[in-house]
């Protein structure tokens, strides 16, 4: 082997040896670094550093807290401890208190257990990054990397692609990072809080109706002022309240007539069909149905049917008639009404005539009976009794009248019988002798005895 070759070999060997040593040194430094940054506790030559967590999710606009604790070797004298963000090798680190992007939003504190806190207010997306503890000792400076990875999120409501009436739907309150498991949520509809019992990040609508339509938002219970942007939930439903309007309102033969079909639906109905009663097939389609020249053959009852992808509904029927037909109908109705009124008047008048006739007949009969009774009485009192009749006293029939109103219809006249007794003088004194002697003859005298064989019955008519 030549000398030059030997030198090259040595040089090459030396170079390879040096390169191998460099690679080994790098591997050793990486292994040492890995051992230094063990999560969540970092050990390095009697150093012990522990962060509260290696990842933190904060709500935009809120205040967040990061913390870490450490133990240092006894031979070191601590001078200063602070937090830095996103350290870069070879660059000087800046205390967050002095950082222009954090000025006035950073506070440090330490409790009796040696835990060092960082309080960051009004968090924004610019604050995302790696937060590490920086410790300055009298002897040296120490940086403990990696630290806490801070993520900032906003809330947003996620609604289903379509909420159909009658079906269930779920709304979600979404974040870009995971908040604490103990986080409670509050739901709002049209800026009004919904049920307090629901603290989940999901809102269940078991049976959706049109009343559920509105603007929904959510918020973390402890930060209600940081609610999500409102999202509109639009409930889909088939056509409702389908109706038909007619233009013009008064139709004359030869005029153009337009029927318009209206409905309430979501999405709006796009398919409209027109039907005429007593016809099996549709007579037209589209939201408007136009009859260019109206005549009597077009008269009838029409209705429309509106349809969207969720269902259909028909309207009530409307009647189409020309003005002449309408007048004829009105005249006919007026004639029938007048006829009915005449019939009613005739019936009322007839009833009144009957009542008047009955009352007049009853009054005439009563007066006639009263006159007859008076006449009989007068004749009886004016005529002196014959001598042949003095032996027997005859009593006239008595008619008792009562108002006909008290009689029930169909009742027959009641007949009552009264006993008329004929008495003889026990002393065989005739009526004539008695009158001559000045004695009065009475039907109830104690000097007379009733002769049962001379009993006369007289009917008493009760009317």
Automatic annotation (TrEMBL):
Domain Ig-like as annotated: residue spans: 146-234, 239-319
Top-rank lineage group of the source organism: Eukaryota
PROSITE patterns cross-referenced by the UniProt entry: IG_LIKE
Record keyword DNA repair present: no
Record flagged with keyword Transmembrane: yes
Entries under Pfam families matching the protein: Ig_2
Region (Disordered): 357-463
Entry keyword set: Membrane, Transmembrane, Transmembrane helix
Transmembrane segments: 328-349
Listed SMART domains: IG, IGc2
Biased composition (Polar residues): 371-382, 427-447
Name by which UniProt lists this protein: Sialic acid-binding Ig-like lectin 13 isoform X2
Organism name: Carassius auratus (Goldfish)
